[in-house]
Structures are given as C-alpha cells and as structure tokens.
UniProtKB/TrEMBL annotation:
This is Acetamidase/formamidase family protein. It comes from Spiribacter insolitus. Signal peptide: none annotated. InterPro entries: FmdA_AmdA.
C-alpha cells in the first residue's frame, strides 16, 4: 500500500525540469508517480546544444529523474511510449571535431576556457557562427566542439519532412535560434542553430522521431551522454571529476543512452532499476536518424513525450530490453503469419512433432567500447534473460533475427524470436503478447 501521508504517488506527472547533464542518484527525484502512471515531459535537444554550452557537464540535457512507486533495486521499469511530438521548427547538426585546449580530457564532460582557464564556465551568445559562444569571465570564444561539415534543417508544419537550408536562410534562423529550436523554459543550453551551418543545402529528409535517451538513473553520478558502454568508456581513467574504473562503469550504468531509432512511439522499453524508485528519465529526441548515427550526431530537437510506466519485479539483467513496432523488426524476427504458422505445424507433424513452441520478438540491448564487444554483451544478456546458452542465442539470432547497430561505436540490438514460455518465466511475456498479438 502506498504511503499517502508523505509525497503520495501521482497518477500522472508533468516534467519540465532538467539536470545539469549529470544523472545523480543522490539528487532529488521528481514524483513519485504511481506504478502504472503516466509521465508527460517537454524535452530539450541533446547533443549539439549541450555540447556548445560549457557549463553543462555532459553531452545532453535530460529531464530530472522520476521516482516510480514500488520500484526497488533489481526490478525493471516497463515504459510504454504513448506519444512523441516534435515541437521545434528547425535544428542544426553535423560531423564534429574538438579543438585543442577547450577541455580537460573530455569535451563532453569538462569544457574549459583556454584563455582564463575556467572549467565549466558560464557563457553567453554574441551574434552567430562558431565563435558566437563566449566566456562570461573573459569574453573570449569557448568552443569545445566545432562543426566540420554541417547543416541547418527546417521542418514542415506536419512534422513529416524537412529541408536543409542555404547560407542566408540558415543565418536568418540562427538570429532567432531559441524560437526556432522551441527550447523549453527550463533549458540552460545554447541552441546549435546559433552556429548556422549550411554545408549541405537542398536535401529533403524524412522525419521519424524517437528518443535517444530513455531509461533509469545509474547508481553513481554520471554524465548523461556517458550512460552507456561506449561513451562511458571515456570516463575510465579520465582526468576530470567523473572518472571511474571499468568495473564501476559496468556496475553503475543503465544504458539509457542508446540512440536506437526503434525507441519511438508505440514501442515498449524495459529498463533495469539500479536505484530505489528507478529514476525514469528521458531526452535527446531526434527528428530522424539512420542506423548507426554514423556522423556522430543527428537532428536533435525539442519535443513533447507521453509515457506510461510500470514496475517489473525481479528483472533478471542489467540492461534494457525493447519490444519494437512490427515494422521496425528485421524481417527474420517478425511474428509468423497465420499462413506461415499453419504450414509450419503441418511440416512439424510430418516429422513427428505434436506442436511448435510459440515464439515472440524481443530485442536485447548490448553496449561496450566497440561494436564487437557490444555484440558479446548483448548476447550474454539475452542468454541470462532467457536462461539459455550464448551459443543458442547466436543460433536463434541467425535463423530468426539479426544483429542491428544502434550507434557506432558500441550500441547494438540482438533481435530475434524467443520462446514465449521463457519470456513468461521472467515476467515479460505479456508485453510481447500486447505488442505482437502472439
């Protein structure tokens, strides 16, 4: 029974507060929200905006974590993504470089002004362009990142497509950057639209919004963009305040930073709980992205999100599981049609089998410093989740699935048809039934 005498759990919660780009389990959480309750959030752009805002201590600007009533360490949070809506009318992005001298070890985490040597300096914007962000202390440009080749893109009113802009139009947008970016009131970042890049004008792009960050709070204070095995590897032995060991990274991270394009409206994500209350957080909405996010960044946007969250007791692995939309599944991992099932059952009887094991799609996330190690991580997690050997997971992912790349250098999905009875054994079978009608 919920304790209604103090901080009663809410059926719904509106989130409009952001972190300073650090996910801290010792910081105050919002909520709590009921088990089964709804979270509505207005999210700020990730990546480029925070990357050019030196006072932020990570590569993104995510929402403050939300406590979920009844969630304990060792449980999971099942998150139904009810809606994702882009509110920005334009954004900018591109491939990056990190100029010498503008950071202490990691430009995402510990930006510095090389002129006055202030770490995490407060800054302001003067004009537009790549020298527009300036130190409040000494007035000189502070740019932990530069755009090597970039673009500004404006979206249509239906948020279905965008077009990349020529120089004059990109500069017009840059002079009203916060307006076009639709930055939430609580956001602290400078909009990347101030840079006004225009190296790729006239390209038509599709919009297919999803969340690059969705998950649970790590059990140690960690820069938000580094809450994954690949970016998190940059923290190992780092020269700044957020340095950790490889063992600590594995123990504390929750892999909320996935950049997997299937984490979109209609999907169900299950995240591990490593702190009491889970600490549901989200952010880094992307207007669209190809697998791998090979440029390093994509179209980061402000947007509104509606989630429903419930507790999964005794969740058996330390990373996320995704139930994507059917159209986002690789062909070999899609549920069998009634016709295929009937053919299979006739074939099975011909060979002396009474029935075929019911199967359902599942996508287990793996992360590591590189893609090969991330695949191993995903395979091992899938084996633990389903109580099967890694060799069997390999076979099932080969004949009934695929390995998909979420983000280079090290986020993958092991997606395959799994025995429904194994999913039932760990409390996940009904999510597969809900999602796929199996």
């Amino acid at each position: 029974m919920l304790d209604k005498t103090k901080n009663p759990a809410r059926r719904s919660l509106v989130v409009n507060e952001f972190t300073n780009s650090v996910l801290d389990p010792d910081g105050p959480m919002l909520g709590p929200v009921e088990d089964g309750g709804t979270v509505i959030a207005n999210t700020a752009p990730g990546c480029w905006g925070p990357m050019i805002t030196p006072s932020l201590r990570g590569g993104h600007e995510v929402t403050r974590p939300v406590e979920v009533a009844g969630a304990e360490v060792g449980d999971g949070l099942a998150i139904r993504i009810r809606d994702i809506t882009v509110t920005a009318t334009a954004t900018a992005s591109g491939h990056d470089s990190s100029p010498e001298g503008f950071c202490v070890g990691d430009p995402y985490v510990a930006a510095r002004c090389p002129t006055c040597d202030t770490v995490w300096p407060e800054t302001h914007v003067e004009g537009i362009g790549q020298d527009s962000v300036r130190c409040d202390v000494c007035g000189n440009p502070v740019k932990p990142f530069e755009i090597v080749h970039g673009y500004t893109v404006a979206f249509d009113d239906t948020r279905s497509v965008g077009v990349t802009l020529p120089k004059e139009a990109a500069e017009k947008v840059g002079h009203e950057a916060d307006h076009y970016a639709a930055l939430p009131d609580g956001s602290h970042q400078h909009s990347i639209l101030n840079y006004a890049p225009s190296d790729m004008p006239g390209a038509l792009v599709r919009m297919r919004p999803f969340l690059g960050q969705l998950g649970s709070c790590p059990s140690r204070a960690m820069p938000d963009s580094h809450n994954a095995g690949d970016f998190g590897a940059f923290l190992v032995g780092a020269p700044h305040d957020y340095a950790i060991s490889a063992e600590e990274l594995a123990r504390h991270k929750t892999d909320g930073h996935m950049d997997i394009d299937a984490v979109r409206a209609g999907a169900i994500l299950v995240a591990p709980c490593k702190v009491k209350g889970g600490g549901l957080y989200l952010g880094d909405m992307h207007a669209g992205q190809g697998d791998g996010e090979i440029a390093g960044h994509t179209m980061d946007v402000s947007g509104s999100v509606t989630l429903q969250v419930e507790v999964v007791k005794d969740y058996p692995i330390d990373g996320p599981v995704l139930f994507p939309l059917v159209e986002d599944l690789p062909p070999m991992a899609r549920p069998f049609s009634a016709e295929e099932q009937a053919k299979g059952e006739r074939l099975a009887r011909r060979w002396g089998m009474e029935t075929l094991d019911p199967m359902a799609p599942i996508s287990v996330i793996g992360t590591a410093a590189n893609l090969n190690d991330a695949i191993d991580n995903g395979l091992e997690r899938a084996g633990r989740l389903l109580d099967m050997t890694v060799a069997e997971v390999r076979n099932r992912a080969t004949v009934n699935g695929a390995i998909e790349i979420g983000r280079a250098p090290g986020v993958i999905q092991v997606t395959f048809l799994a025995p429904l009875a194994r999913l039932d054994a760990f409390g996940l079978g009904d999510y597969a039934r809900e999602q796929y009608g199996v």
